Structure to design on (462 residues):
């Protein structure tokens, strides 16, 4: 008995030594080029606005409150959090696969032997057993460890997916809020224009009585007034829909939304993009794609391990007796240890197929990773251009509006003195309304460009 125990200890020591020598290859970040992702004028400064917490970028009190509410109640984000919990459970299961499996059993069996086979007995046999069994697959070639690493990479990918949902949520709430205040500004401008047009109609009527204009001037001024006024119901409906869209992001039932004014919304005028390589660690979808590549790498390593022998140790111990009274008697104790080494020879091509599929999926994951990175760089580059365009338009638009305000004032004065026609007044009034509405669009474009760049760089999940 002592000799057998020594043999078992020697075998176990050898197995442990082999297992310690064996290790799966670690994933190494490949030579993924980030050069030129932001265009030729990209910054070399590592200061990055994506590292800034969202509550430092969005400082307006209403907007901060809504983003915080969305991070607590948004349904898509809650689902993403549950997905992380699912992958966390799978990872814990993969870790447990490295440990021995232990089971306990109790059995009572009765056998009546036929006399033709057992003429001298025993005719009846009753056996009571109480046993424990441990089975341990020795991970010589890293099959279980690579599966564990793949599960861990999947867990990280799911967490990156959660961060992606959060990043998009912060940007979506900000954009929806800016859309609402923009619609409010459009509605305010339109109502003021209608009021001015009503005054213009009254002016035309007075001028008609004095013979300076004809009836056509009055009718056309009324038409211009109604052309502006008819857009108000559509604007009000868009505001209701915008409020409901924001409520959905916040996990609320449809309802009204408190908010400030468009001219109160201020964001940084210095866009710090950092260096393109920071996308690898900041932007969640890029992170998710790389974790998927890491998982595929480990799945390939796991597939290779199926070509090597599998060693399993099984140990059983317990008591066996004819009845319960004698079950725990020391003479009823039994134990055995079995080592099983299985080398696959012909498995209907299953191992070869598994490895080929894993390699192909690894290549797919690498291609997806590269595409995701290129897409991220494209978004950053496009948004930088949009922001610069919005700044240029804002300057020009202000000059246009200032000029049109003077044009409306001058033509109305000249109309009174008969040196301008009513069509000139109406055209100036219509052009001013169009320019003012376009000015709101320019402001929103500038605000949304900052929001989009913040999201494109990976900001919002910290």
């Amino acid at each position: 008995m002592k000799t057998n125990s020594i043999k078992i200890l020697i075998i176990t020591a050898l197995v442990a030594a082999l297992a310690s020598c064996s290790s799966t290859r670690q994933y190494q970040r490949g030579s993924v080029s980030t050069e030129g992702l932001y265009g030729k004028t990209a910054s070399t400064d590592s200061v990055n606005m994506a590292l800034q917490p969202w509550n430092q970028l969005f400082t307006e009190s209403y907007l901060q409150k809504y983003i915080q509410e969305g991070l607590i109640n948004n349904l898509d984000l809650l689902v993403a959090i549950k997905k992380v919990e699912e992958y966390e459970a799978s990872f814990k299961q993969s870790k447990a696969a490295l440990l021995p499996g232990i089971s306990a059993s109790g059995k009572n069996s009765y056998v009546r032997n036929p006399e033709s086979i057992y003429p001298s007995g025993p005719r009846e046999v009753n056996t009571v057993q109480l046993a424990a069994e441990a089975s341990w697959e020795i991970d010589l070639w890293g099959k279980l460890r690579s599966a564990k690493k793949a599960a861990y990479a999947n867990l990280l990918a799911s967490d990156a997916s959660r961060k992606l949902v959060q990043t998009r949520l912060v940007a979506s709430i900000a954009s929806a809020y800016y859309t609402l205040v923009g619609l409010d500004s459009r509605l305010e401008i339109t109502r003021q224009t209608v009021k001015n047009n009503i005054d213009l109609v009254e002016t035309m009527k007075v001028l008609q009585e004095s013979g300076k204009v004809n009836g056509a001037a009055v009718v056309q001024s009324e038409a211009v007034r109604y052309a502006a006024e008819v857009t108000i119901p559509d604007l009000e409906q868009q505001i209701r829909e915008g409020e409901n869209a924001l409520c959905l992001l916040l996990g609320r039932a449809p309802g009204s939304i408190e908010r400030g004014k468009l001219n109160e919304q201020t964001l940084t005028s210095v866009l710090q993009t950092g260096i393109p390589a920071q996308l690898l660690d900041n932007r969640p979808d890029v992170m998710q794609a790389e974790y998927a590549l890491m998982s595929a790498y480990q799945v390939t390593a796991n597939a290779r391990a199926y070509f090597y022998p599998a060693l399993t140790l099984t140990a059983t111990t317990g008591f066996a007796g004819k009845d319960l009274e004698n079950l725990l008697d020391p003479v009823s104790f039994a134990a055995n240890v079995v080592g099983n080494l299985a080398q696959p020879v012909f498995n209907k091509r299953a191992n070869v197929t598994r490895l080929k599929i894993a390699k192909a999926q690894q290549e797919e994951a690498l291609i997806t990773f590269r595409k995701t990175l290129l897409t991220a760089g494209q978004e950053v580059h496009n948004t930088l251009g949009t922001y610069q365009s919005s700044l240029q338009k804002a300057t020009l638009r202000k000059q246009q509006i200032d000029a049109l305000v003077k044009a409306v004032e001058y033509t109305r004065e000249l109309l009174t003195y008969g040196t301008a026609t009513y069509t000139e007044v109406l055209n100036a009034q219509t052009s001013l309304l169009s320019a003012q509405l376009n000015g709101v669009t320019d402001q929103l474009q500038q605000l949304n460009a900052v929001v989009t760049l913040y999201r494109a760089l990976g900001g919002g999940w910290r």
Summary: The mean pLDDT is 87. Residues 18 and 140 are 6 Å apart (CA to CA). Residues 143-209 form the longest helix (67 residues).
